[in-house]
Amino acid sequence: MAGLLEIHDKDGHPEHKLKLERSEVPFICGGCKELGFGLRYQCPNMNCNYILHDECGFGLQYRRPPTQKFFKKCDFQFHQQNPLLGTRICNICALDIQGFLYQCSHGDIDLHPHCANLSLTITLPDSNEVIELRENTKSRCLKCQRKERASGKVKGLSYVSSDGKLCYHVACLKEACLDNWKRGYFQLDVLANEENKILALQNLAPNQVVRPSEGQSSNAMKGIKLLITFLKLVVSAILGEPFALVSTLFQISQN
Fold first, then answer.
1. Where do the TM regions start and end (predicted)?
2. What pLDDT score does 74 carry?
3. Which tens digits make up the pLDDT trace of 228-244?
4. Which residues does the chain have with pLDDT short of 50?
5. For residues 255 and 251, what is the distance between their CA atoms, to the nearest angstrom?
6. What's the predicted TM-score (pTM) here?
7. Which of 67, 96, 140, 149 has the lowest tally of Cβ within 10 angstroms?
8. Edge-to-edge strands of the sheet including 158-161?
9. Start-to-end C-alpha separation, the chain
10. How far apart are CA 38 and CA 40, in angstroms?
């Protein structure tokens, strides 16, 4: 998605225009209130920390999301706050919406701006692995070990490997990334320590073996490498592809 070089949030931050920047430093978006990395719109005033996801800035400017494969019959409109009464749940991640949102004109479908921009398929240049965003899966999530992640009547989507063996709910992935950030793992100096990498990876997949070691069979080593490749793909999708951070976190896969 090509972003504008600057935007003006006249309601949320009328004092200054926000400029598009790229950073590996995590932030909480002032619009949707969710964790963000990578591209962002930031106030140039050094004393101001107002920041927006680039997707939230896109919504402010254009008022509509990119084409949504899963909600083709919906006419989405961008809102800076929920125009209806009650709690709204994102139909992609099944988590509460606290700020900016896209809402169907029928009022029955809601999306976080960042979720509305998630990649439908993701790959690595040096890998044959293809990960798809799916509505239904028979696989269990690597984090919660459940087949579905739902809130009320809303069932969230999942990233699933092409063979169907690896699955991660978008909701669980967002929560795991936020938890790793709160634990301080998403800092380049912290990830310079090998044990911190293992802790961060283990938190992403608590029931899996993520540490290669001597004496493991070739099949076991292959399974760990496939798992870490999958995690690298889905974390990159959720975090907005902060390449230096992701490469450092998953460098253990080369050991």
1. none
2. 87
3. 888 888 888 887 765 56
4. 1-2, 253-255
5. 8
6. 0.85
7. 67
8. 121-123, 130-134, 158-161, 167-169
9. 34
10. 6
Domains of the chain: which residue ranges? Answer: 6-61, 121-211+220-239
Q: Which amino acid is at 26?
A: P
Among all chains, which residue has been given the structure tokens 């699933």? 160
Rounded distance, CA 65 to CA 103, Å? Answer: 10
For 166-190, how does the pLDDT look when each residue is reduced to its tens digit (9 = 90+)?
A: 999 999 999 998 888 888 877 766 6
CA distances from 116 to 38, 102, 123, 148, 224 (A): 17, 8, 19, 19, 31
Asked if residue 63 lies in contact with residue 78, where contact means CB atoms within 8 angstroms, the answer is yes
CA angle 27/28/34 to nearest 5° reads: 130
**How high is the pLDDT of residue 110?**
93
Amino acid letter for position 139: S
Containing 12, the helix (H) or strand (E) segment is none
Q: Which residue has the tokens 């976190």?
A: 249
Polymer length in residues for the chain:
255
124, with CB counted inside 10 A (0-12, 13-18, 19+), is middle
Q: Where are the alpha helices (DSSP H) in the chain?
A: 54-62, 113-116, 170-182, 194-204, 218-239, 243-249
Give the CA distances from residue 33 to residues 27, 36, 99, in Å, rounded to whole numbers and listed in that order: 9, 9, 6
Q: How far apart are CA 60 and CA 4, in angstroms?
A: 11
Q: Which fold has domain 6-61?
A: Wheat Germ Agglutinin (Isolectin 2); domain 1 (3.30.60)
Residues 6+ apart with CB under 8 A from 223: 209
